[in-house]
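Cross-check.
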Amino acid sequence: MKNLPLILLCVVAFFFIKKRFFDNTDYRNMLSNGGIIIDVRSEGEFYSGHIENSLNIPLGDLASKLDQFEDKDQPIITCCASGMRSAGAAKILSAKGYTNVVNGGGWSSLDRKIKN
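Predicted model, tokenized:
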């Protein structure tokens, strides 16, 4: 049991590395098929830099603003600063019945993936 923190750290690091370097999600295709990007950072973080045409809905406000997304099959990409809050946002959306939700991770990394 004394190795549990180390094991947990390794698991978290694995998923971070996997998402950052081995992500084969076709984000451009999702966007061209009517997809949207929801940036769940705070308003201040969003205005310091963001992906063009992304929507800013802070994570704490997301559950109360879901009624504006009527099509539960619409492609939705969540992003934040590092991917942690956007993972939570993706889980909230999936739990509310949205079927085509992807955690895009950090916004700057996602922006590069969309532009390349």
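Residues 24-115 form a domain with the Oxidized Rhodanese; domain 1 fold (CATH 3.40.250.10). The CA atoms of residues 71 and 108 lie 27 Å apart. Passed to J.P. for a second look.
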